[in-house]
Amino acid sequence: MASTSAGRWHWRDFFQNPAEEGPNWGGREWIRSPVSWARIREMRKGDIVVAYQAGEGIIGLARLASDGYPEVEGGPYDTFDLAPAPTVWLHEPVPLFLVRQIPQARAHFEFLRVHHGTVFRITPEGFEALLHRIRTLNPEQAPELQRFLEERNG
User: Fold this and answer.
1) What are the residues whose beta carbons fall under 8 Å from the beta carbon of 80, sequence distance 6 or more?
2) What is the pLDDT of residues 27-83, one digit of tens each?
3) What residues make up the domain containing 34?
4) E strand or H helix at 25, and its extent?
5) What is the CATH number of the domain that holds 38?
6) Which residues lie closer than 8 Å to 122 by C-beta, 6 or more apart?
7) Looking at the whole model, is its pTM more than 0.70?
8) pLDDT above 70 as % of the chain
9) In angstroms, rounded to a whole number, what is the distance separating the alpha carbons of residues 27 and 74?
10) 64: β partners
11) Within the chain, what is the greatest distance between any pair of CA atoms?
12) What value, to the nearest 5°, has the Cα angle with vertex 61 and ends 59 and 64?
């Protein structure tokens, strides 16, 4: 899961025009958390990214276009590339309080208190529970969501 705070950049910018936003995400000025560096080191091309916007909740799904990597050679793993497709922009975001209500949420989601630029892990069980919440709030997007889950970026 990748998070950003409500500020001058919004996940909507990526979902509305991924080509303009470009694939490169993160970097030393944006990702400063050692926990996030460890998670980016684990990221692999094709992995699903759950886009969380502070104050709104989970607002979309994307895929990685690369493994995680350091912006500067020898530096921390602070950068990753997002694929411009496939993506899903949720009509109805999943608010944080609904994520926290998932049984054993703390075991399945890393809840970090960092203002922006955080990357954290979700277990497979947590992701399945999250998908249930997404489908419940966005039933009209079921076909789009299914296509996203089946498609791998090329």
Assistant:
1) 25, 26, 40, 43, 64, 66, 67, 68, 69, 119
2) 888 888 888 888 999 999 999 999 988 889 999 999 999 999 999 999 999 999 999
3) 2-150
4) strand 24-26
5) 3.10.590.10
6) 1, 50, 108, 109, 110, 130
7) yes
8) 88
9) 13
10) 82
11) 46
12) 140
Number of folded domains that form the chain: 1
What single-letter amino acid sits at 13?
A: D
Q: If you write DSSP's letter for every residue of 43-108 in order, what string do you get? A: --TT-EEEEEETTTEEEEEEEBSS--EESSTTS-EEEEEB-SSS-EEEEEEE-HHHHHTSTTHHHH
Do residues 80 and 66 make contact, with C-beta atoms less than 8 angstroms apart? yes
100-105 long-range CB contacts below 8 Å, 24 or more apart? Answer: 102/126, 102/129, 102/130, 102/133, 103/129
